Known about the structure:
The complex is a heterodimer of chains A (422) and B (217).
Chain A: H1 44-69, H2 76-82, H3 84-93, H4 100-108, H5 110-116, H6 120-127, H7 133-140, H8 148-151, H9 156-171, H10 181-189, H11 194-206, H12 222-238, H13 240-248, H14 258-262, H15 271-284, H16 287-299, H17 301-304, H18 309-317, H19 326-334, H20 339-352, H21 354-373, H22 387-390, H23 402-405, H24 413-416
Chain B: E1 12-20, H1 26-35, E2 48-57, E3 60-69, H2 76-79, E4 88-94, H3 98-102, H4 104-114, E5 120-126, H5 138-148, E6 151-154, H6 163-184, H7 206-212
Parallel strand pairs in B: 1-3, 1-4, 4-5, 5-6
Antiparallel strand pairs in B: 2-3
Helix pairs in contact in B: 6-7
InterPro entries (chain A): Rab-GAP-TBC_dom, Rab-GAP_TBC_sf, Rab_GAP_TBC_domain
GO molecular function (chain A): GTPase activator activity; small GTPase binding
Protein name (chain A): Rab-GAP TBC domain-containing protein
Amino acid sequence: MERKKIEEFEPGPVPPARPVDRFGFFVPEENNSSQGSIKNNSSQGSITKKVINEQEREERRIRKWRKMIGVGGSDWKHYVRRKPQVVLRRIRKGIPDCLRGLVWQLISGSRDLLLMNPGVYEQLVLYETSTSELDIIRDISRTFPSHVFFQQRHGPGQRSLYNVLKAYSVYDRDVGYVQGMGFLAGLLLLYMSEEDAFWLLVALLKGAVHAPMEGLYLVGLPLVQQYLFQFEQLVREHLPKLGEHFIEEMINPSMYASQWFITVFSYSFPFNLALRIWDVFLYEGVMIVFQVGLALLKFCHDDLVKLPFEKLIHALRNFPEDAMDPDTILPMAHAIKVSKRLEELKHEYRKKNEKPILRAESSSSPVAQKQFSGKCFSNSMIRSPSLEESSAQGTQPPATPRSWRGRRLLSRNSTKSRSVKE
Amino acid sequence: MAAYRADDDYDYLFKVVLIGDSGVGKSNLLSRFTRNEFSLESKSTIGVEFATRSIRVDDKVVKAQIWDTAGQERYRAITSAYYRGAVGALLVYDVTRHVTFENVERWLKELRDHTDSNIVIMLVGNKADLRHLRAVSTEDATAFAEKENTCFMETSALESMNVENAFTEVLTQIYRVVSRKALDIGDDPAALPKGQTINVGSKDDVSAVKKVGCCSA
């Protein structure tokens, strides 16, 4: 059992004997490019030309992004305030891979959390103990097992993953550790340091910019249940014929979409698509998960409506390769307007399930309060109403833990000015 | 339960659930039985997974529709919905981790709270290939299974040991219940509507199941 945070990687683990794709996932032996390797079907000459063109375009993009971010992110907030629509458009096109880690930290608000809580992560990793330690260890080798970074037993990847998950389980004892969190942490660790990944996880689950998502993992999985309810309704409204077919075949979203929400598409989707979804997710919020889900169903609609139960389940877990192309599915997703209905459905759901939600909320408060008012957390960043919730749509956040409300509010110029349009 | 349509041919369709603590090998038991595959690099199950396989019992084709569930306690909010209508269950523990055997009692309770009491249950001690690490004796598990009136087998998904037997036994048991019930009421079992999920738990099945009892092999 590793208790210590490992800061220095040991020199040179043996290079992998198996070939990996550009993201570090092992290429399956039959080489059917399931994890986002580029598919080539044109002739050799045009490939070279195409690759050069793509490289040039990518370099131009990176230059633009660097200008937008400034040194170490110094210009970012300013730029977002001045040109929110440009930022939105560029993020939807995909953040350049070499800047992704930094930009994710900027748009999620985790950068500020990190700066305001020096030493907290180290404290959590080194000195606290978690009741979830054994559960975490059991899942470490079952998280992205086909990725070169996480594959080595007790290697740097597995140790970082353990540290981040353990730290979070201490930081938020109500949530602790829940299966699925490892995929979030794992994805983040491929783009940033342990400490950065930890704070991004906090920003996400505690709601630094958007509505908190800890309800994905709290007892009873209240937010998962709410999302599945919302998604089911949206399917019926946007794709009535398919919705009807699902009812006839007794298919409900928990059979295929729980993973989408619990891991934000990082569990089993092609990695290049997952990353592009995460770019948008961190900037615009969970809405994109609904939109991508609907877009996938829409893309395969004509096939899905013909399939009987078992084949339907299989199809819903194995979308065809052309549906998984981010440049196909993301524009489709953005074109589906859901934000207003999502709000309405949220209220409908909470009204229906008022008691359980309230219970989950109040049970989470006292412990968190104690924890955060403790010495090492006194500088914790606080921000209760999320952007969406304080915006014109004007919904009070019933899921915001009370413990967050009393705390000092972090001024967040960057996010206040952000207005996301579908 | 409403009829599931499927274009492959079968005489009976049974819904079976795989439950037990996280990391005991449920998903690998399923993949071994349905696809004859085992993966050392498998991911933890998030939510539920699903697979099917048909076997032959007597002269009938029996199709199993198997739901594999996430083992972590927190996930029961989602997974317990899948117990409904199940006529068989494989309750899996890991023979090398005693705590997973201790938790079997809670799983049984969970199962009996959500399903009809006549569901056919097989207690499965998986990872039996790890002989040097064994923490649960076969005798203890056998005694427990007898006490609880469930079937029992030790398996190894890795070595493909007893996996086929465990699933086949559960399906055969369910089949016996169903066909006996049909005989009892003077029906021809073959005349049961094709493609319909048989629910052992429906009221008039109760006596039939009790007469069959269980194997504690």
